[in-house]
Amino acid sequence: MSHPNPPNPASLFFAAGASQRLLRALMRAAQALGPGLASRLAFALFSTPMPFKKTVSPQVAAPWVAEPWELMGLRLCSWRHREHEAAAASRPRVLLVHGWAGSAQQMRPLAERLWAQGFAPILLDMPAHGHSQGWQTHMPQFVQALHAAAQRFGPLHGIVAHSLGAVAVSHAVARGLPTARLALIACSAPPRQVLGWFAQSFGLGRKSMTQIQQRLERLGATTLETFEPAWLGPRLPQATLLVHDEQDRAAPFAHAQAFAAALPDARLLAVQGLGHRRILGDAAVAQAVAAHLRGEGF
């Protein structure tokens, strides 16, 4: 069932209001001076998680303990249960990955339920998010952080990811990140579609949009096509659970359907009334994810 109103692309970035009107005006002025200036300004905006990261982000509450580490000179933060070291040998390790403008704190309710069911969750604050360093980031850097985290914390039995984090995880696994099972919650549309929504939201011209896409592809040394379901599907043999609200206003349910259809070993769990973010705290969703990680339900 689709929502009677299509997803509002502006909701992915800013609430409609004075801030968005001001940014649209700035973008129009930049484009009047040339697409190069407009694309640089737009790329900076596109790479800045909104709302802005707090100078002091809330700690993930005990019993979760912060573990700082570095990625190419950038200080990142992960979180593990205080009893992780003592129990890790007998518990399958599961990486939890938040989405754009999210944080490890969002994944804590899910992590607590997975710990209670015998797993060893590891929560990441991605670059420029939560307690990790930086104010700007992009999809290629998300992917780099995932590969580095897998090397640091692996072997990983599974990965649970939300929203844009789910897109990054899918790409990273398709490009060789080792794991046995995937759970993708409220998976976002591919970057090319998100970029189109961004351009629509701020009145960005086609030439500026193309320049942003080319810059992202240079940074990732790949094309945005490699984030599309048609490219990912044949390269993701892992058993995959997709959980998605049918009325998700930020990530269209139709994308989850298309992604599930492209994967060789996928199950799509449709839910209602949980939206794009509340879905992370739902007990029934956590139970389904835990069952999937145990190998049940396929």
TrEMBL record:
Alphabetical list of Gene3D superfamilies matching this protein: alpha/beta hydrolase (3.40.50.1820)
Ranges where the Serine aminopeptidase S33 domain occurs: 90-190
Residue span(s) of domain Peptidase S33 tripeptidyl aminopeptidase-like C-terminal: 238-294
Protein name per Swiss-Prot or TrEMBL: Pimeloyl-ACP methyl ester carboxylesterase
Organism: Roseateles oligotrophus
